[in-house]
Amino acid sequence: MSKNRKYWKLHAKESLRGNWGLAVGGLLLSSAVNLIGNYMASGLFPGETIPALLMSQAFLFIVSLIGMIFSTGYSYMLLNMSRGRKFGLGDLLYLFRNQPDRVLVAGLVLSLIDTILMLPLNYWTIMTSPEAQTLDAQVSWLQTAMALLVLGMVLGVIFKIPLVLTFYLLADNGEMGGLEALKTSVRLMRGKKWKYFVLELSFLPLIILSAFTLYIALLWLLPYMQAAETAFYMDALGEFDRPQPEEYPENSLPEIHPEDDYNAEA
């Protein structure tokens, strides 16, 4: 893996050139599943009783798994786009036709990790209550809750960064199982976790600036981020270091122009 975040970002720009419409459309469609699921959950399971809350959470969990299949299809579309292959919105359904249970297995493992990491926060918020306490006690309760939230998020980054290539691997390998993809991601990420973290961190200024557009700019920023992550995955496989595969049409991959602003971060 010899490239860096500047190369991955440039490759992302080149692959998205002329394809922004499909990239944004694919993102919206793949994200719509969770949005519709949240809307349906409030309508199907109204009220704040424990049974209603449990059924609502179970419904949302199922929806999130379905959303993962669409998201993996979006990764498949971006891979085709980055490699100069034929692609389209139909790619979003690719995993539904190619053993979607593989995505569900990987998704269940990642969801389990999230659940375990958030157990301290969930225990604190459920088993303790700031009500009927003094103002100082309420502030102390809130500070503890925030500390547990930050701890869960930090641990999430540490434990889940090695697994970030899982869904790309599932999209790229029709016969690879969910657990195998998780293990392969860990192997591929050895020595690359810091590079990936810096890549993600480099988008933070653009995310902050998107607030001035009421976050409408995220419609373009998020596909750009995922296209850069796709280039990172391809580099992790060593695709940029070996001759172009024969099955790719000649000059089909996006050409990297030396005269472009190679040092531009955004």
* Beta-strand percent range: under 5%
- Sum up the overall morphology in one term: globular
Number of helices: 11
Unreliable spans are 245-264
Structural class: mainly alpha
Indicate the radius of gyration in whole angstroms: 21 Å
Oligomer class: single chain
Helix content: 55-70%
Can you give the mean pLDDT? 85
Order of secondary-structure elements: HHHHHHHHHHH
Main beta sheet: none
DSSP E strands, number: 0
End-to-end Cα distance, whole Å, is 22 Å
Structure description:
There is one protein chain. The protein is mainly α and 266 residues long. The chain has eleven helices and no strands. The protein has helices at residues 5-16, 20-44, 50-82, 101-117, 119-127, 135-160, 166-172, 178-188, 193-201, 204-209, 218-236. Helix 2 crosses helix 11 (218-236), helix 3 (50-82) packs across helix 4 and helix 5 packs antiparallel against helix 6 (135-160).
Short description:
The chain is mainly α and 266 residues long.
Tags for this model:
single chain, 266 residues, mainly alpha, 0% strand, disordered C terminus
Question: How is the topology of this model organized?
Answer:
Elements (H helix, E strand, L loop, with lengths): L4 H12 L3 H25 L5 H33 L18 H17 L1 H9 L7 H26 L5 H7 L5 H11 L4 H9 L2 H6 L8 H19 L30
